[in-house]
Each structure stands twice: as structure tokens, then as C-alpha cells.
């Protein structure tokens, strides 16, 4: 199960809007089509989406607001990249928010709300089976929104969604791996089982566990890069050409 297209195309989109282009680029970031530190060049976006320049700039402003893009002087807009320390800090906050969300769920959960969550997960299962990466991503977002809405605290739910969104470029390292997609699918069902059982501690533990693969994979890549750089001799230490 891999992402077979270089760029994500939306069927039926004849006149792209700010929101539709933002959604497309968001998906390309989380699915690893666009990489951390990759430039988003205005002229290329103009050509690709057939937009006016002021609309492209609105798109970039919105992506920056979402934490997916950063702007650097004399460079322009780049897909957001995180240092190891920034990843640890972001995921520490995510864990605090999400485990608190799990603790706030009151039991028993109504049959209607539980069935609504199950219905979303069944759609997620179907997307995993067909390998539809865009749909897997979107249904994953819906599943977590529905799950944390059981806390009945909309402010907390919004904070959880905001911080999850900021982690998109971090999650790209695992989002398209078939084994990780399957692992996440199984973890969703374990969350549902814990809801049925009314097991708060199990929910908290699962929420914490659910976050670690993308965080750890990103940090591992960063550490490998740092190790590679440090293993190269400095200019003064390199042998002179003969």
C-alpha cells in the first residue's frame, strides 16, 4: 500500500478555492509528497492550480497559520521542519492534551455515540483495505475528532486538533508505511474496546502509545542525519588532494 501519484488530484475540482488548495497541500505534506524544508514556490503554485497570485498568498498564509509552513527571509515559504527538541516538546504537549481528553470521557458512553465512532472506523478499515491514502488520512482525522469529542470539552478538542495538525510533517515519516497504517487501525479498535469496557486507564495508555511511532521515527531520522554530518571530517581535517 503506497501513494501511487506524485501529486494528489481532486476529482471534480474545476475551480480551485483557497480551502481546496490548502486541503490538497495539507494532504501532500502529511503523506510525504512534500518534504520538510521543501520550498513552496508561488509561481509553481500559480501554474499548477491556475490561481491568481493574491489567492496563492492566501493559501500560504493559511498553511502558515496551521503550522504546516514557515517563511524565511530571502527564501520564501517552506514545509515546516522540526528539530529533535521541537518534536519532543510538541509531542509532550500532545500527550498531555490527548491523555487528559481520555480521562475526561464519562462512562458509560451512549450506544449512539459509540456506534457513530464505530461507523467511522469501519470506513477507515475500508480505506486501509483499498490503500486510499488520502481517505485514510481524512478518516483518521474524523476518528480522533469523534473520539475526543466524547470528553464533552470542545476547547480541549480544538487544542488537540490544532497540535495534531502541526505535527503533519512529522507524521509523514510513518503515515504511508503499510505496517504503521495497519498498526494504527488496530489501535483504533482497541480504543473502541476500552470505551466499551469503560476502562479509563486503558484509554490513557493507548492514547500515549498511539503517538509514539511518528515521533520516534522522525527523531531517528534526525539523529541519523546528525550522525552522518558529525562523521564527516571538517575541512581542516580532510586530506589534501594529491
TrEMBL record:
Which Gene3D superfamilies did the record assign? Answer: GntR ligand-binding domain-like (1.20.120.530), Winged helix-like DNA-binding domain superfamily/Winged helix DNA-binding domain (1.10.10.10)
The reply on keyword Transcription is yes
Record domain HTH gntR-type: where = 15-82
Recorded GO terms, molecular function? Answer: DNA binding; DNA-binding transcription factor activity
Classification via InterPro entries: GntR_C, TF_FadR/GntR_C, Tscrpt_reg_HTH_GntR, WH-like_DNA-bd_sf, WH_DNA-bd_sf
An example of a Pfam family matching this protein is: FCD
Outline the segment boundaries, as ranges, of region: Disordered: 221-242
Per UniProt, the keywords (alphabetical) are: DNA-binding, Transcription, Transcription regulation
| Stored SMART domains | FCD, HTH_GNTR
Bias (Basic and acidic residues): 232-242
Stored PANTHER family = TRANSCRIPTIONAL REGULATOR, GNTR FAMILY, TRANSCRIPTIONAL REGULATORY PROTEIN
This one is known as DNA-binding GntR family transcriptional regulator
Amino acid at each position: 500500500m503506497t501513494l501511487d501519484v506524485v501529486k494528489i488530484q481532486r476529482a471534480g475540482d474545476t475551480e480551485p478555492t483557497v480551502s481546496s488548495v490548502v486541503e490538497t497541500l495539507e494532504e501532500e505534506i502529511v503523506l510525504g509528497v512534500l518534504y520538510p524544508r521543501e520550498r513552496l514556490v508561488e509561481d509553481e503554485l500559480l501554474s499548477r492550480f491556475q490561481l491568481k497570485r493574491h489567492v496563492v498568498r492566501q493559501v500560504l498564509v493559511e498553511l502558515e497559520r496551521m503550522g504546516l509552513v514557515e517563511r524565511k527571509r530571502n527564501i520564501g515559504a517552506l514545509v515546516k521542519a522540526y528539530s529533535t527538541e521541537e518534536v519532543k516538546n510538541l509531542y509532550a504537549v500532545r500527550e498531555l492534551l490527548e491523555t487528559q481528553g481520555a480521562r475526561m470521557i464519562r462512562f458509560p458512553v451512549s450506544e449512539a455515540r459509540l456506534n457513530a465512532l464505530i461507523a467511522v472506523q469501519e470506513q477507515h478499515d475500508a480505506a486501509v483495505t483499498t490503500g486510499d491514502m488520502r481517505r485514510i488520512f481524512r478518516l483518521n482525522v474524523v476518528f480522533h475528532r469523534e473520539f475526543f469529542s466524547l470528553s464533552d470539552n470542545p476547547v480541549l478538542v480544538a487544542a488537540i486538533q490544532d497540535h495534531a495538525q502541526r505535527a503533519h510533517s512529522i507524521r509523514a515519516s510513518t503515515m504511508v508505511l503499510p505496517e504503521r497504517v495497519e498498526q494504527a487501525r488496530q489501535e483504533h479498535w482497541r480504543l473502541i474496546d476500552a470505551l466499551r469496557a469503560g476502562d479509563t486507564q486503558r484509554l490513557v495508555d493507548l492514547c500515549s502509545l498511539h503517538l509514539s511511532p511518528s515521533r520516534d521515527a522522525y527523531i531517528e531520522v534526525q539523529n541519523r542525519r546528525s550522525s552522518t554530518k558529525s562523521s564527516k571530517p571538517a575541512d581542516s581535517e580532510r586530506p589534501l588532494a594529491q
